[in-house]
């Protein structure tokens, strides 16, 4: 097969690797608009469960990546200065650029060609191909130019977030909620290198406007966030990588392919960063698409419907949960002041309905007991 892939992110890279391993005769080229050493953001995370899925599908890649991961056995929910550790929630992290570099090397050793600094804006530019994979991110032009065919729905959510890094190395994936006179400031932060952490700041639109962020320079914005989270940062600076305020687009497509063109990763659907790793979802998309080709003998017209059939149920379930999680954060100005730290941690863990009281008791008996002490009706 002649396969052309737009976007050298985890979805496109991993699909290329799986197809090339299965049949080295496949002619696979990946087009990436950015230079080899460019990326936005800082670290990405995988839950322990996500890594077990990867290990089940690809032991070799699992063994290749794991020496480069930072690991911790719990998450932490912090309300002002009170921290509530939550057991039974192991995660691993890695720098986004480091992950991509490792995947570049992995696929190139298999014989896949990556063309960096190559901006493709017209499908005709890829030439004749049996399969075109649009793995070119949440703002995919392939999807945007064919929204009617894909049945695209885009819901821009009101909260603002900005993806920073910091030299402060945190010991776990932590959600810090700081109450201020202007509203609640939330930081999602975790270590991805021994001396670096992701530090993503999120606020409601109302808090963002009250703080005056719309009129601040990038430097003033960084300084403001450093002051808001001075207790957590302990003198460490916030670091920008073309960081700017964003709104999250909740994207869904009713039809995942159009002719021989298929959407993958964030081009296919976005899931809010609070629900888990978009990287994990992208790689699972790649596995499902690969398995669809395995099942159909590389028949493109049969494989693409098969891919949607296989992947739709788990993706829709995660996407629905992610949208519930988005709305939980959109209510944090009202929610956080009303809840004691233990109640906030419990409320956070059970917010989507995927974790009930029995499951939380299994994961972390101490947190369940602390919550039951506040709510005797559950005992």
TrEMBL record:
Pfam family, one: FAD_binding_3
Superkingdom as given in the UniProt entry: Bacteria
Residues in FAD-binding domain copies: 3-295
Tagged with keyword Cell inner membrane: no
Keywords: Monooxygenase, NAD, Oxidoreductase
Database matches in InterPro entries: FAD-bd (IPR002938), FAD/NAD-bd_sf (IPR036188), PheA/TfdB_FAD_monoxygenase (IPR050631)
Any one GO molecular-function label of the UniProt entry: monooxygenase activity
The protein's name in its UniProt record: FAD-dependent monooxygenase
Source species of the chain: Mesopusillimonas faecipullorum
């Amino acid at each position: 097969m002649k396969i052309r892939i737009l976007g050298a992110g985890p979805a496109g890279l991993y699909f290329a690797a799986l197809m090339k391993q299965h049949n080295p005769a496949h002619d696979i080229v990946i087009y990436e608009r950015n230079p080899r050493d460019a990326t936005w953001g800082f670290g990405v995370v995988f839950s322990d469960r996500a890594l077990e899925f990867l290990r089940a599908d690809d032991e070799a890649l699992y063994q290749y990546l794991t020496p480069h991961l930072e690991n911790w056995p719990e998450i932490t929910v912090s309300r002002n200065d009170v921290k509530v550790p939550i057991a039974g929630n192991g995660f691993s992290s890695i720098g986004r650029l480091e992950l991509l570099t490792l995947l570049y090397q992995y696929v190139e050793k298999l014989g896949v060609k990556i063309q960096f600094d190559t901006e493709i804006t017209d499908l005709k530019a890829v030439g004749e191909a049996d399969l075109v994979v649009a793995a070119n991110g949440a703002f995919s032009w392939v999807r945007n130019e064919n929204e009617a065919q894909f049945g695209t729905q885009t819901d821009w959510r009101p909260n603002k977030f900005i993806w920073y890094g910091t030299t402060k190395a945190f010991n776990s994936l932590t959600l810090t909620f700081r109450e201020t006179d202007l509203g609640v400031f939330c930081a999602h932060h975790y270590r991805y290198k021994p001396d670096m952490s992701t530090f993503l700041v999120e606020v409601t639109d109302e808090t963002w406007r009250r703080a005056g962020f719309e009129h601040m320079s990038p430097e003033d914005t960084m300084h403001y966030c450093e002051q808001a989270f001075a207790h957590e940062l302990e003198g460490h600076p916030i670091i920008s990588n073309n960081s700017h305020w964003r709104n999250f687009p909740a994207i869904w497509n009713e039809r995942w392919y159009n002719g021989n063109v298929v959407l993958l990763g964030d081009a296919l659907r976005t899931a809010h960063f609070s629900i888990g790793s978009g990287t994990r979802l992208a790689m699972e998309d790649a596995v499902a698409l690969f398995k669809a080709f395995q099942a159909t003998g590389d028949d493109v017209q049969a494989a693409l419907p098969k891919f949607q059939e296989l992947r739709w149920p788990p993706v829709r379930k995660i996407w629905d949960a992610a949208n519930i999680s988005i709305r939980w954060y959109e209510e944090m100005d009202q929610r956080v002041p009303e809840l004691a730290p233990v109640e906030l941690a419990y409320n956070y863990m059970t917010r989507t309905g995927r974790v009930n009281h029995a499951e939380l008791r299994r994961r972390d008996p101490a947190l369940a007991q602390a919550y039951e002490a506040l709510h005797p009706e559950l005992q």
